[in-house]
From TrEMBL:
Subunit structure: Homodimer.
Enzyme class of the recorded protein, top EC level: transferase
EC numbers, comma separated: 2.4.2.22
Organism: Desulfosporosinus lacus DSM 15449
List of residues binding 5-phospho-alpha-D-ribose 1-diphosphate: A129, S130, G131, S132, A133
Main localization of the protein described in the UniProt heading: cytoplasm
Protein name (database record): Xanthine phosphoribosyltransferase
One GO term describing the cellular component: cytoplasm
Gene that encodes the chain: xpt
Pathway: Purine metabolism; XMP biosynthesis via salvage pathway; XMP from xanthine: step 1/1
Function of the protein: Converts the preformed base xanthine, a product of nucleic acid breakdown, to xanthosine 5'-monophosphate (XMP), so it can be reused for RNA or DNA synthesis.
Chain ranges of the Phosphoribosyltransferase domain: 44-157
Catalysis performed (reactions): XMP + diphosphate = xanthine + 5-phospho-alpha-D-ribose 1-diphosphate
Amino acid sequence: MKLLKDKIRNSAKITENRIIQVDSFLNHQLDITLFNEIGKEFKRRFSSKEITKIVTIETSGIAIASITSQYFNNVPVVFAKKHAGLNMNPNVYESKVYSYTKDQEYTIKISKEFISPNDKILIIDDFLASGSALLGLVSLVSQSSAEISGVGIVIEKSFQGGRKLVEEKGLQVESLAIIDSLKDGQVFFK
């Protein structure tokens, strides 16, 4: 997706040739025009799939999934919580995920009332790197016996190997920008 790649080239910051910061347009300040194009592109790539719900993980995935939902007839968006409060239903699906950027493990949860075995789920997330967060989401959906119709990723860091782990589960993975490497403050796309 050219618009996204241009935005990454012009606005992203690289740290230690392993972390790409996209705070100015993707996961702190949000470029809604870009998000609308991302939503349209996910609709194009998954147009042949039946989608009844979109599942993501807090926090960065929520805005992307919400805007994407508009292009799938406003299907509900369900997000996995990393920090469940006292008001969360205790009847949940849960899975452990490791955050590469925060160097921390989380238990993510989705209330069982929001995903049923009849659902056709599109998983949406901002990044695919090692695959931990994505595999956690796959686990939550699998626990519900819902069908995963596909996985939409905004930015994939292919050099971290997460795609292979997800594809081994037989899932269609569509990444809008695939980064081959980060070197000397520059991004190299696949």
